[in-house]
Amino acid sequence: MKYPKALEDLIDSFSLLPSVGRKSAERFALYCLNRLDEAQIIDFSNSLIGITKDIHICSSCGNISEKDICSICSDEKRNHRQILVVESIKDLYTIEKINDYKGIYHVLNGAISFSKGIGIHDLNIDSLVDKVKNNEVDEIILATNATLEGETTARYIKELLSEYNVKITRLAYGLPVGGDLSYVDEMTVLKAFEGRHEY
Predict the structure, then answer these.
(1) If DSSP states are collapsed to H, E and C, what string results for the chain?
(2) What is the mean pLDDT of each run of 10 residues along the chain (199 residues)?
(3) pLDDT given at position 191
(4) What is the pLDDT of residues 17-61, one digit of tens each?
(5) Nearest C-alpha neighbor of 193 from the set 178, 175, 168, 170
(6) Cβ neighbours of residue 54 under 8 Å, at least 6 residues apart?
(7) Rounded to whole angstroms, how far apart are CA atoms 169 and 197?
(8) pLDDT score recorded for residue 96
(9) 84 touches 98 (CB < 8 A)
(10) What pTM, to 2 d.p., does this model score?
(11) Would you state the pLDDT for residue 17?
């Protein structure tokens, strides 16, 4: 026996979200039906519609924005000759929360993953290369994730830009603050050794 069509459609919609299976989607849909009043449901649906109408991709870096150019790229106080390359918009916002980085960003929208069918042409790389070609950049900071896909992507970008006069650096990875060395995996220890500096 199925739920009424409107509820089934809502369950299917919630199922589109990452890590949300059928049971979780069903619970969310029933919560909306039983616990939210009409005004809350309308606000919720308007928020979803709003992200399709009011949010755009920054034509310069790939960040999200309500305008053609995001607030970071349009900020004249930031160092526009230093670009930090991240895989996702979420990564960009994570670094921004530190409130210490004063350059600009470049969002790749993913990482090279042959198993998932994501190749170099699926990523936002061309505009980054154009900025380097036009001598608009002094330093590229690669901040892709410390995964096989992230490392592959970082190495590819490094090779791609090696012929140009630009400094290429990589965020250091290593031991977490407050962590116990005996619980850390070998790759993290290796990265900690590679990123060591004078004390």
Answers:
(1) CCCCHHHHHHHHHHHCCCCCCHHHHHHHHHHHHHHCCHHHHHHHHHHHHHHHHCCEECCCCCCEECCCCCCCCCCCCCEEEEEEEECCHHHHHHHHHHCCCCEEEEECCCCCEHHHCECHHHCCCHHHHHHHHCCCCCEEEECCCCCHHHHHHHHHHHHHHCCCCCEEEECCCCCCCCCCHHHCCHHHHHHHHHCCCCC
(2) 95 97 97 97 96 95 96 97 97 94 97 94 96 95 92 96 95 79 79 77
(3) 80
(4) 999 999 999 999 999 999 999 999 999 999 999 999 999 999 999
(5) 175
(6) 66
(7) 15
(8) 95
(9) no
(10) 0.85
(11) 97
| CA 123/CA 150 separation, integer angstroms | 12
Asked if 78 contacts 135 with a C-beta cutoff of 8 angstroms, the reply is no
User: By the 8 A CB rule, do 128 and 83 touch?
Assistant: yes
Cα distances from 36 to residues 44, 49, 77, in angstroms, run: 10, 18, 44
Tally the residues of the chain.
199
Q: What is the spatial distance between Cα 168 and Cα 158, in angstroms, rounded to a whole number?
A: 7
For residue 1, give the amino acid letter.
M
Structure tokens of 77?
A: 């106080």
Q: What is the strand order of the sheet 139-142 is part of?
A: 103-107, 79-86, 139-142, 167-170
